[in-house]
Design brief:
The chain is built from two helices and three strands. By secondary structure, it is α+β, with helices and mostly antiparallel strands. The chain has a three-stranded antiparallel β-sheet. It has one domain.
Length: 58
């Protein structure tokens, strides 16, 4: 997922009052076509560093 798409998801989530998200699916994050090493939740747009996503078992 491109970084700007994740930002849009975060904005939509904030507009909904930031309801809890179980982060059901994390995908690789890209910036201008280059992988950042982070992963992003496809539901809420929250990004996770490699250390964070490994800690939650993704």
């Amino acid at each position: 997922m491109q970084m700007d798409e994740a930002k849009r998801l975060r904005e939509e989530q904030a507009a909904k009052g930031n309801p809890p998200c179980g982060h059901p699916q994390l995908v690789k994050e890209y910036y201008l076509g280059t992988q950042t090493g982070d992963k992003v939740c496809t539901t809420c747009g929250e990004d996770f560093s490699e250390q964070e996503w490994r800690a939650i078992g993704r």
